[in-house]
């Protein structure tokens, strides 16, 4: 597999493969890497409060120009930073705005508009 892309649970295509082990904020293992994500598994994760998952990127998706590595790394770094405030609508809006900002700017450093 070429890499991983963090995707919102509601947008994960059926049969996508979990790229890494998935744990609760308390550290409990929910699913192992390599698990095929069924609609039932995705619904269960949503019930557990999991908002996004690392999905294995296929070589085809990578060849189509998937997200830049720096953007993917930055988006992956967002999840643990916002984990403690999961469920807070304001913090979720901030997380989504930050993710959109990173995706729109390639995640590069020093691209501010000072």
What does this structure look like?
It is globular and about 30 Å long. Strand 2 (about 20-25) and strand 3 form a beta hairpin. It folds into 2 domains: about 1-65, Molybdopterin biosynthesis moea protein, domain 2; about 65-110. It is of the alpha+beta class. It is about 40% helix and about 15% strand. The strands form 2 sheets. The chain has a two-stranded antiparallel sheet with strand order 1-4. The chain has a two-stranded antiparallel ribbon with strand order 2-3. The chain has helices at about 40-45, 60-65, 70-80, 90-105, and strands spanning about 5-10, 20-25, 30, 50-55. It starts with a strand and ends in a 9-residue tail after the last helix.
Q: What is this entry, summarized?
A:
With 114 residues, the protein is of the alpha+beta class.
* CA-CA gap between termini: 39 Å
What name does CATH use for the topology of the largest domain?
Answer: Molybdopterin biosynthesis moea protein, domain 2
Low-confidence stretches: 59-67, 106-114
Spatial strand sequence of the major β-sheet: 1-4
Please write the CATH class name of the largest domain: Alpha Beta
> What is the number of domains?
2
Overall 3D shape:
globular
Number of strands: 4
Q: CATH superfamily name of the largest domain?
A: Molybdopterin biosynthesis moea protein, domain 2
- Secondary structure tally, helices: 4
Q: N-to-C SSE series? A: EEEHEHHH
Mean pLDDT: 75
Structural class of the secondary elements?
alpha+beta
Estimated radius of gyration: 14 Å
What would you say the CATH architecture of the largest domain is? Answer: Alpha-Beta Complex
Biggest sheet overview: 2 strands, antiparallel
Roughly what percent helix?
Answer: 25-40%
Tell me what portion of residues adopts beta-strand conformation. 5-15%
